[in-house]
Amino acid sequence: MPVERIKERYPSKVGEVVLGATAAEGGTRAHRVKVGGDSTLPFLHFEGEMPNRPVIAMEVQDVVPEWNPVFTAPIRDVMGDPAAWAQKCVEEFGADLVYLKLAGADPEKQDHSPDHCAGTLRKVLEAVKVPLIVTGCGVEDKDDAVMPVIAEAGAGENLLLGTATQDHYKTLTAACMVHKHNIIALSPIDINICKQLNILISEMNLALDRIVIDPSVGALGYGIEYTYSIMERIRLGALQGDRMLSMPVLCTVGYEVGRVKEASAGADEFPSWGELADRAVLWEAMTASCFLQAGGHIFVLRHPGSVRLLRRQIDGLMAGN
Amino acid sequence: MILIGERINGMFRDVARAIRARDPEPIRQLARLQEAAGADYLDVNVGPTAAEPVEAMQWLVRVVQEASDLPLCLDSTNYDAIAAGLELARKPAVINSVYADRPRIERAFPMARKHGAKLIGLCMDAKGIPKNSENRLALAMELVAAAAEYDFPLEDLWIDPLILPVNVAQDHGPEVLETLRQVKILSDPPPKTVIGLSNASQKCVNRSLVDRTFMAMAMCCGLDAAIVNVNDEELMATIATARIILNQDVYADSYLKVFKKRG
User: Fold this and answer.
1) In this complex, which of A195, A233, A241 lies closest to B263 when CB atoms are compared?
2) Which of A202, A244, B218, B231 has the fewest C-beta atoms under 10 angstroms from its C-beta?
3) Which residue in A33, A31, A34, A41 sits closest to A8, CA to CA?
4) Which chain A residue has the Cα nearest residue B254?
5) How far is A122 from A142, CA to CA, in rounded Å?
6) To the nearest whole percent, how much of chain A has pLDDT over 90?
7) Which of B112, B106, B80, B77 is nearest to B94 (CA)?
8) If you write DSSP's letter for every residue of A14-83 in order, what string do you get?
9) Shortest Cα distance from B263 to chain A (angstroms)?
10) Using CB atoms, which residue from B249, B252, B263 is nearest to A199?
11) Distance between CA atoms of B95 and B41, rounded to whole angstroms?
């Protein structure tokens, strides 16, 4: 008996965001990266289009990171040199994008000046030719001083800049407007705040196709199902035509996994958990895998091992496209 | 919710005057105002007094399309006027309307099919509007059967249960709401439902309040479309809020602001 394939037809689709700019567009990137554009739920190729592959960004910091040894081992020779680190991520580990976190701007850490941060950006832009994501240190006042300088230094490069929140979005939005960059809109696993922030940013006249949603992801074992269902609702909203939920989604998987003990405690502490070296990589890969299927578009990872695993999974899931 | 702007109708004095004088600017202005307020379609009705309804409809359709890209809802009891409007419409239109009466069915369905138009089907026949929901549904069923007969897509048939003014026909209110619910089980896929909202408040005080209260109740009964005054801000706010309560839109603090820019 033939089985009828039930297909949903949606009135709309996820918006497309373009990152990076080649010489033709006024930048210095070797190519641009497009994300989004999906007209169905993740990987339902029989039902709709998924014109752009999900992409992997690798996190690079401007300081020696406080990560556990499993995550620092592959980058031990380049830590402290963001340009060399970025280069290794792209050339050796195959990252589609570099996610540069200016952690050193934190007044409690190195308290790097805005000009120092801009210098770091220039070095990374020279070292790699993939599009860049740049985020501040997370201290709001300092980021307000740093990010406009970063936006100016990266003018023409069509960067993705972070991070805007509901209570703190105006300075970064204005910087993205003036220097033609894209913005990361972060909400705390809350679809209502996610939508509200997109409205607030678009009311400042930043185009909707310059916004990327960061819904706050959690790590495997830490309420991952909440983010999964939020991402699902964001996608369904986009497909139903809610323009304020129609942006591609970024998942800071490496950061979340770096915070949980399952990816940092050794086998001496929890013998039944097995060796940390394998477990930490698998934890990052499994977390990313979950959000890949929930509809994520940009994955920020730390370990080349999980980058490999996730890329293999993307290959498999895109094969039917 | 599909919103059809009601304002370009010869029943309104300013529109009747503009049609008589063939003065395009007031019409263009109304088209632009309704588009800006969030209309999905613009109702176009030359009114009962137009001397040359066909020619008046042609003029009105041309003028409206100069000012707005929205699709039209061609509203007339004169099918020659509707046919003339369909010829000029740039986008698939809605025909407003047909009712359960053979001669009208035989003209309207083939015309709608030919132009890929949607069709509003009124729950009435030559004898008038039924008093209760059962008889309204029987007439709706006749229209559903006609759709099948003419191979017309059921989701393009929009059933209007016909609201009557609450100050003279109060007992019809619950019957209309019940009809909206029941229409959805007449067929699979079901027809859409539509109401001409401002009929509810004819000659009432507090017209806007009556309209928006009826609207929220009708939405709760599954209403798909309505012919309304899209420039009534309280009404639009009520529709936006009802969509939130019915979980049809995701809540955000600024949901009222973005409702008009939806779609």
Assistant:
1) A241
2) B231
3) A41
4) A196
5) 19
6) 96
7) B112
8) PPEEEE---GGGTS--SS-EEEE---SSTT-TTTS---S--EEEEEEESS-----HHHHGGGTTTTT-HH
9) 6
10) B252
11) 11
Q: Which two tokens stand for residue A306?
A: 């999980």
The ranges assigned to domains in chain A are 16-318
Chain B residues in contact with A192 by the CB 8 A cut-off are: 250-253
Note the ipTM here.
Answer: 0.85
CATH no. for A16-318? 3.20.20.20
| Phi, then psi, of B170 in degrees rounded to 5 | -60, -35
User: How does residue B262 score in pLDDT terms, banded at 50, 70 and 90?
Assistant: low
The sign of the dihedral angle between the CA atoms of B58, B63, B69, B75 is: negative
Question: How do residues A86-119 score in pLDDT, each as one tens digit?
Answer: 999 999 999 999 999 999 999 999 999 999 999 9
Phi, psi for A85 (deg, rounded to 5): -60, -45
Say how far residue B127 (Cα) sits from the centre of its chain. Answer: 22
Q: What would you report as the CA-atom Rg of chain A, rounded to the nearest whole angstrom?
A: 19
Prediction pTM value = 0.90
**Cα angle: A191, vertex A193, A199; to 5 degrees:** 105
pLDDT digits (tens, 9 = 90+) for B102-154: 999 999 999 999 999 999 999 999 999 999 999 999 999 999 999 999 999 99
**Which one of A12, A166, A190, A196 makes the best mutation probe of the B interface by having the most chain B beta carbons within 10 Å?**
A196
